[in-house]
Specification:
mainly alpha, about 0% strand, elongated
Length: about 550
């Protein structure tokens, strides 16, 4: 017996135990030690390859997978050798190594030609062909091939092939405009994931692929749900690197839409760190874009521009964010040219919807209402073909904005109120606040100044909470023109309350002085704290003196309690 064999078996046992416990780094170390001490059997080679991939050691994954492929060929197992070749092709294709991936797919095809009868491996080989058809715009062809793979997966009881084929069929249906059918296929693909029927390799791949597909059609509720589940799955495997970059960048986008902007920036940065450590960098550009969006919304325009540039360097098209940045900087013609150029290059319907919304906003800012109508008409066509609640909501908001520009405030109010309710249901506070600004304008156009003030105050408070400084400034400028707010965003009544707080009065004393209830005083004080970014009466007093907010106020002595 070879003197190293007992030690060899000890390493294998340790590696298998670590693999079962999803201790991927420990599994790698043990199997590598066993491999150095003596040849590994194919099952353990696959475990080593998978653990290498999951820990971000992609070069090792390729090397060990090639060794495994040759081991299967030496054993005369053509189907297993073909399956390994297919996985090598899939991995290399995801990294952009087209020539190598095509070579491995061709080898798998040749190996299967020597096999008699159908097998699951023939279904796996249909997947890259289906994907190529999908990328080429042949949605029917992609769907047909995916359906053939599904049939083989069911015939040979292969849950991993089934999940991957269902995902591809779902994507083909989505891009062909059959949104509800496509989403149903994606939901079915996720059954194998949530039931823990799949390897970690396929689980992560399906998670990230389904999330990407849901993003394309604005299925925000699904994106939020699957992102949370993916985050839990990744957290349970702290040694894993693969898929964690995608997990974090999708989480960053969810936080962006949910108004958790600081968390969004943190997650985007962590995503970039993961991509640098070996997680497949398919979404690195999105990480830069998400952070740039937060910077733009906060008014940090230089940092935003740097982020959009970094996104572009990865190959990610930073629109419509960059066009909206130009609009915020007052470069309206540049903004319009950018969004029109992006639309001319984009046939994907979901991306067109994002770009059209920006085009409408830019057109209204440049008083080109006719162009806004044209863009809105195209968005309405997209909404009919996409059957997306989010696109319907964007359309309602934009129709309301155009109706305001046309002088039809009553129609605007109907559209905007519906949009505001939907944004709230999507937990999208920034979009909801922007809609309330439009609602305030519609109320004012209809002569309802109290309603306008309430809408604008609510929107301003939300913008202040989010840190959306440009939006706060716009509301303040708008309200100052109408005489409802001062330059600090305070109403006349709030100025009175602040002045009395600065003299040391209690809420009861202020209520008595102003002939209002203590509850009303408390509400005004809460609004003051929110608008000024303060947290105490002492801070409010200091702010009032520092900004000379007491000038012209009547100084009444505080009554005795």
């Amino acid at each position: 017996m070879h003197p190293s064999r007992p030690h060899h078996h000890s390493f294998i046992a340790t590696g298998r135990e670590a693999f079962e416990n999803r201790s991927w780094r420990r599994a790698c170390e043990a199997f590598e030690s066993a491999r150095a001490a003596g040849a590994l059997e194919p099952g353990d080679l696959w475990r080593l390859a998978l653990a290498s991939f999951l820990t971000g050691r992609t070069a090792a994954f390729v090397e060990v997978s090639q060794e495994l492929h040759h081991a299967y060929r030496a054993l005369g197992d053509g189907r297993a050798a073909a399956r390994t070749a297919i996985w090598l092709g899939i991995h290399l294709d995801s990294r952009g190594d087209v020539a190598q991936s095509t070579g491995w797919f061709a080898r798998a095809q040749r190996l299967l030609e020597d096999e008699q009868g159908d097998c699951a491996e023939r279904g796996y080989l249909l997947l890259p062909t289906s994907r190529r058809r999908l990328m080429a715009g042949d949605h029917e062809g992609a769907c047909r091939l995916a359906a053939e793979a599904i049939a083989l997966a069911q015939r040979f009881d292969d849950p991993e092939l089934l999940a991957l084929a269902l995902y591809l069929e779902g994507c083909a249906l989505l891009r062909g405009g059959r949104i509800q059918e496509g989403l149903a296929r994606l939901d079915e693909a996720m059954i194998g994931v949530t039931a823990d029927e799949l390897s970690a390799l396929v689980t992560g791949l399906v998670y990230c692929s389904v999330l990407g597909a849901c993003r394309e059609v604005w299925a925000l509720r699904r994106v939020r749900e699957w992102t949370e589940r993916l985050a839990d799955w990744c957290a349970a495997q702290p040694e894993m690197v693969a898929y964690t970059g995608e997990c974090r960048v999708y989480g960053a986008e969810v936080r962006l839409h949910g108004g958790r902007w600081r968390d969004a920036v943190d997650e985007a940065r962590r995503a970039r760190e993961r991509f640098a450590r070996g997680s497949v960098p398919s979404a690195a550009g999105l990480a830069h874009y998400v952070e740039a969006e937060v910077r733009r919304l906060r008014g940090e325009y230089t940092a935003a521009e740097e982020g959009y540039r970094a996104a572009s360097e990865t190959g990610y098209v930073p629109q419509p964010g960059l066009a909206l940045l130009r609009l915020a900087q007052g470069e309206r013609e540049a903004a319009l040219a950018a969004v029109r150029r992006a639309l001319a290059e984009t046939s994907d319907r979901s991306r067109r919807a994002r770009l059209l919304a920006a085009r409408i906003e830019i057109a209204l800012e440049t008083n080109d209402v006719a162009d806004a109508h044209r863009a809105c008409d195209e968005m309405a066509e997209l909404a009919r073909s996409c059957a997306s609640d989010v696109i319907d909501t964007i359309l309602a908001q934009q129709r309301g904005a155009i109706a305001l520009a046309d002088g039809n405030a009553s129609e605007a109010l109907t559209q905007l109120r519906a949009a505001w309710r939907e944004w709230r249901s999507f937990d999208a506070p920034y979009d909801a606040a922007r809609t309330r600004v439009l609602l305030g304008r519609a109320c004012r156009a209809l002569g309802d100044d109290d309603g306008a003030t309430l809408e604008l105050q609510a929107a301003r408070a939300e913008f202040a909470r989010l840190g959306a400084r440009p939006d706060v400034a716009r509301i303040d400028a708008m309200s100052c023109r109408q005489g409802t707010l001062d330059r600090h965003g305070l109403t006349p009544r709030e100025r009175e309350v602040l002045a009395l707080v600065a003299t040391g009065r209690t809420n009861r004393s202020i209520a008595t002085a102003l002939s209002i209830s203590e509850k009303t005083v408390a509400r005004h004080l809460a609004n003051i704290f929110t608008k000024l970014g303060l947290s105490s009466r002492a801070a409010a007093t200091a702010y009032a003196y520092e900004h000379h907010l007491l000038e012209g106020q009547t100084r009444r002595p505080a009554p005795r309690e």
